[in-house]
Design goal:
397 residues; alpha/beta; Aspartate Aminotransferase, domain 2; seven-stranded mixed sheet; 15 helices
């Protein structure tokens, strides 16, 4: 673990353009020609290095980006998709069949929760939601039909930290796959190095960092990634969640600055939450000593990238939360918008937005009340100024 630096893995990648450009050339083509008919037939059966068939299968730019993601996550291979949800759904449907079961963390992104709770039963796949910070509850939920243990490295929106080594140990004991959504913590946490079998991302967020695209990623073994693109049985091939090559090129360029951005997001969040907490505000942030998994995170993180750029302010009521967000937007703290990982600060009340798919009684049970405001801090140059603006807004609520 100590010898693996995800930022250096990205830094060391070299992709030359067709004419020696410092950025790889974009192949603007949906289909590819063959000099011999036999090669086309062969490519339908197996991947051939440097050969491409059809962009729903692979294209050069998506391959470049996938290779970069695999290097970043320390996995053998990777593939890219048209959204983060496409990445998650493809992984689940590739691994699970009718009659199979999943044990999932109860604190996950609302879209994933809706897919698990409302959509998968159509296919005879059962999902049991548990407090994944309690290993005894995870164990108790596993049956002979369980194929996946699912969690988020840092959960959305409660910012719980997954004990990846412990979850991996349980998964291996019961012959399950540990699938981890690492959207909130690229570079910060490397799930595969702690035993995760598959790592998924919404690249829409921190990896791209510009709020100008929707994209996803799947990282895992070469065998698993190859299975996804199998022309006969691959979820990614048959469901068709293709990422456009121009967007892949844009994301790949943005990945080159990811290490700088993650450090700044984390530094800003730690500075601001430390001050807001000292003022007496109820703050949820893994970097604060009062966070339940503060110590745990320091055993699994890549420390130079900090505790992340997301924190939660508990304003107690929905009315207070809404007023605070409107004040912060009017005072140019950032934007009242869903999503995260942007260069500009974004904030929303997850109970009424990104987690609204979770029934109210379940949200209350995990502490996800309507008074919570999730803040994705931007790349602000002066965090003291941002802190003062947020403090002023809180005082006006």
């Amino acid at each position: 673990m100590s010898n693996f630096n995800p930022a250096e893995q990205i830094q060391d990648l070299q992709y030359f353009g067709e004419f020696g450009g410092v950025n790889p050339s974009i192949t603007d083509s949906s289909t590819f020609t063959f000099l011999q008919a036999g090669k086309m037939e062969e490519l339908f059966e197996k991947e051939i290095e440097g050969c491409y068939l059809y962009s729903r299968h692979w294209n050069p730019m998506n391959k470049y980006l996938s290779n970069a993601l695999a290097k970043m996550e320390g996995t053998e291979s990777a593939s890219v998709t048209g959204s983060g949800m496409a990445a998650i759904t493809n992984v689940i449907l590739q691994i699970c069949s009718s009659g199979d079961e999943i044990v999932s963390s109860r604190t996950i992104y609302g879209g994933t929760y809706a897919f698990f709770k409302n959509f998968l039963p159509k296919f005879g796949i059962k999902v049991t939601f548990v407090d994944s910070t309690d290993m005894s509850k995870v164990r108790a939920a596993i049956t002979s039909k369980t194929k996946i243990i699912y969690c988020e490295s840092i959960s959305n929106p409660m910012l719980e930290i997954a004990d990846l080594p412990a979850l991996s140990k349980i998964a291996k004991e019961f012959g399950c796959k540990l699938v981890v959504d690492n959207t909130f913590s690229p570079l910060m946490i490397s799930p595969a190095l702690h035993g995760a079998d598959v790592v998924a991302h919404s690249m829409t967020k921190f990896i791209n960092g510009m709020s100008d695209c929707v994209a996803g990623a799947i990282c895992g073994t070469k065998e698993f990634i190859d299975s996804l693109s199998d022309v006969n049985s691959g979820a990614s091939m048959l469901l068709g969640p293709v990422l456009d090559s121009f967007r892949s090129a844009s994301i790949l360029k943005n990945m080159r600055t990811l290490h700088v951005r993650m450090k700044q997001h984390s530094a800003n969040a730690l500075y601001i939450t430390t001050k807001l907490s000292a003022d007496g505000n109820k703050i949820i942030y893994p970097g604060l000593p009062n966070h339940p998994q503060h110590q745990l995170m320091q055993t699994i993180w890549n420390s130079e990238f900090g505790f992340g750029g997301l924190f939660v302010i508990d304003m107690q009521t929905k009315e207070n939360a809404n007023k605070l967000m409107e004040l912060m937007q009017n005072n140019n703290v950032g934007y009242l918008a869903v999503s995260l990982g942007n260069y500009k600060t974004l904030f929303s009340a997850p109970g009424g937005s990104t987690s609204s798919e979770i029934p109210e009684e379940e949200r209350i049970a995990i502490g996800l009340t309507d008074g919570l405001v999730r803040v994705s801090i931007g790349l602000d140059n002066n965090p003291e100024r941002t802190y003062q603006l947020i403090k002023k807004c809180i005082e006006q609520v």
